[in-house]
Amino acid sequence: MGDQLDAVLDHLPDFQHGLVVTLELTAGGTVLMFILAFTLGLASTSPAVVVRGAARVVIEFFRGTSLVVQMFWLFYVLPQLGVEISPMLCGILALGLNYGAYGAEVVRGSLGAVPVPQREAAVALGFSPVDRFRRVVFPQAWVQMIPPMKVLIIQLLKGSAIASAITLVDLNFQGEILRNATGNTFLAYGIVLVLYFIIAYVIEWLMKGVEYLAKHRLGLVDTAWWDPRRRMTATPAPAGAAPSAPGGSNEGPGGLRGGDR
C-alpha cells in the first residue's frame, strides 16, 4: 500500500497537464457549441425555406451520428483527404459540432416559447426587428435556455473523456497511466472520478450565477436579501391591510391611486 501511495504522489503533478487538456477541450467545445447553437437555432426559425432546411439538415446530421465516429473521422479520415489538424482541434471540433446541434434545438425551442403577445406588444410600441429581438424576445428566451445549456456543457465535459483515443493526454488518459503504474484500478479511476465531479460542480454553480443574473434582469428574483435599501423599506404591512403594488405605491388597477378614482 505504501508503494502505491508513493506512486500516486509521484504521478499527481502529471494530472495537472491532464486537467489543463480537459479544461481546454471543455472551454473550446463550449464556445463552439454556443456559436453553432445560436447560428443554427436562429437559422431554423428563418422564414426562408432554404435557410431553414439547410439548418435542419446540419442539426439532424450531427445529432444523428456518434460523437466517437465524428471525432475519429476528423482525426483519421481528414489527413487522408489532405487536411491535417491537431488532436486538440479535432477534439474541440467534434465536441462543438455534436453538442452544438443539440444546443440549436434548445435555442429554437426557447425562442418559440416566448409568448406571442410579448412580440405583438413590441410591434405596437414601434420597436424595430433588431430591438424586438434584443430587448424583448432574447432576454426571455435566454432565461429558458440556461438550464438545458448547463446540462449540455456538463455532458460535453464528460464527452471530452473519449479524446484520449486520439492521443490527447487528458484526465482519462492520466488515470490509465496511474493505473498501469500502481496496479490499483480503484484508486486511479477514483481520482479521475472526483476530478470530473469537481469540474462539473463548478460549472453547475457558474451557470446558476448566470441564470440568476438573467432572471434578475427580467425582475423574476427578489433582491431584498442583498440590497440594504430594499431591506430598510420592506416593512411588514399592518394586519388586515391590503397588499400594496410593487414599489410600495397604493395604485389600484389601471395604475390609478386611491385618491384619483
Outline of the structure:
The protein contains nine helices and no strands.
Helices, strands, pairings?
Layout (H helix, E strand, L loop, with lengths): L1 H42 L5 H16 L2 H11 L9 H26 L3 H9 L4 H31 L11 H12 L2 H33 L10 H6 L28
Helix pairs in contact: 1-4, 1-7, 2-4, 3-4, 4-6, 5-6, 6-8, 7-8
GO cellular component, one term: ATP-binding cassette (ABC) transporter complex
Family: Belongs to the binding-protein-dependent transport system permease family.
Organism: Tomitella fengzijianii
CATH fourth-tier homologous superfamily: MetI-like
Provide the CATH top-level class: Mainly Alpha
User: Mean pLDDT score, rounded?
Assistant: 85
The parts where pLDDT drops under 50 for at least 5 residues are: 241-261
Describe this entry's structure for a reader.
The chain has nine helices and no strands. The longest helix is centred in the N-terminal third of the chain and has 42 residues.
